[in-house]
Amino acid sequence: MVLLVQSPIGGGKTSLTKLLSEDLGTTAYYEKVEDMPMLQDFYKAGAESRQAKAFPLQVGFLTYRFGQLGSAIKEENSVLDSSLISDGVMAKNLFNRGEFDEAEFRLYTQLSSYMTNLITAAPTNAKPGLIIYLKIPFSLMLEHIKNRGRDMEVIDDDKKAYYYDVWKSYEAWATSYAESPMITIDMEHIDFVNNPGDKVLVLDQIEKEMNALSLLTSDELRAIKKRRK
Predict the structure, then answer these.
(1) Coil/strand/helix, residue 223
(2) Fewer CB atoms near the end CB (10 Å): N or C, the chain?
(3) Out of 81, 151, 156, 158, which one is annotated catalytic?
(4) Distance CA 124, CA 51 (A)
(5) Hey, is 29 helix, strand or coil?
(6) Which CATH number fits domain 2-228: 3.90.1170.20, 3.40.50.2300, 3.40.50.300, 3.40.1160.10?
(7) 3-class secondary-structure state, position 28
(8) Partners of residue 5 on adjacent β-strands
(9) What are the pLDDT tens digits along the chain (229 aa)?
């Protein structure tokens, strides 16, 4: 089983994936922006470039995630900071905004469904054993995006509206998703990056849930806590 960290843009996925995989002693799989050169073109001209690049970008991400997931399911409790699920949320948001051509969106959805069905039919089920959802206020999401300082993510009125719709899409997804167990971390009151106490609190919460779901034995849980000291 894989573990999936899910959140809107700038929600803390990469940071928690790193902390959790290190604590568990398992492999982390990251979304590497440098592996997706089309992302720069997607952002560069607002709605116009998003509409022009939505299909090739989403198919690029789909292919990238499919390869990652194929490797991740061969390991125990590998942690991913993105997935076919998150790609679907982003693609649906673009479609709802009128920035993903309907025919292309239907084709993307067919490809995504085919890939998902193919990999979940593998001997090792690709459905997440646990999803950790980082629930973040929109204002804090914007602050995180600004602080990481990527030129293509500079916040203007157009991007702010786009980010808001992304944020709403993830909130709606988290409310309705029921295919895998999920726990929610309230990022308004938790800072696991800068606060050591919060880091331990979050890791303990996740690993306790993993134990309850039989993803970690009690002996493994005790060993992790002992190693952490």
Answers:
(1) helix
(2) C
(3) 81
(4) 36
(5) strand
(6) 3.40.50.300
(7) strand
(8) 132
(9) 899 999 999 999 999 999 999 999 999 999 877 667 788 888 887 888 899 989 999 999 899 888 898 899 889 999 999 888 999 999 999 999 999 999 999 999 999 998 888 877 665 567 899 999 999 999 999 999 988 877 677 788 999 999 999 999 999 999 999 989 999 999 999 999 999 999 999 999 999 999 999 999 999 999 998 888 7
CB 153 within 8 A of CB 43: yes
Q: Taking a C-beta distance cutoff of 8 angstroms, is the pair 53, 41 a contact?
A: yes
Residue 70 backbone phi and psi in degrees, to 5: -60, -35
Q: What tokens were used for 154? A: 């500079």
pTM of the predicted model as reported, rounded to 2 decimal places: 0.91
Residue found under tokens 């990238």: 64
Sheet containing 2-6, strands listed edge to edge, beginning at the edge strand earlier in sequence: 28-29, 79-80, 2-6, 128-135, 182-186
Q: DSSP H helical segments within 73-156, as ranges?
A: 84-96, 102-120, 138-148
Provide the angle, in degrees to the nearest 10, between the axes of the packed helices 84-96 and 46-72: 160
Domain boundaries, the chain: 2-228
